[in-house]
Write a structure and sequence with these properties.
- This protein has helices at 8-30, 32-47, 51-61, 73-94.
- With 101 residues, it is mostly helical.
- It has one domain (8-92).
Length: 101
């Protein structure tokens, strides 16, 4: 994530899509409900047209911990990375540059 985000939607797609694809593949063997959830998130990400869509995706993604998915260590670490990256992007989107610190 060394690049500077200019369009949050394009940036989110660039940062999150590969990890979501990897999760979907890995989770097919571990937990099909989890795989279905992350495939849905990936489809929503690809369909994002504006920041409202992206914010709704992040809200949906944030519910992952409450579904009771049965994942293994590497998948859990990948979910953690996706959530951390989504949180960083959400903070960037919500930052208001009109008030210098």
């Amino acid at each position: 994530m060394n690049q500077t985000p200019t369009d949050p939607i394009d940036y989110a797609k660039a940062v999150l899509a590969k990890d979501l694809q990897t999760l979907a593949i890995r989770l097919t063997d571990e937990d099909t409900a989890a795989a279905t959830f992350f495939i849905s998130i990936l489809y929503q990400l690809n369909a994002c047209m504006d920041e409202t869509d992206l914010a709704q995706l992040f809200v949906e993604l944030s519910t992952a911990a409450f579904h009771g998915f049965q994942m293994q260590g590497e998948s859990i670490a990948l979910v953690d990375r996706v959530l951390a990256n989504a949180e960083t992007i959400a903070h960037t989107m919500s930052a208001d540059g009109s008030h210098p610190h």
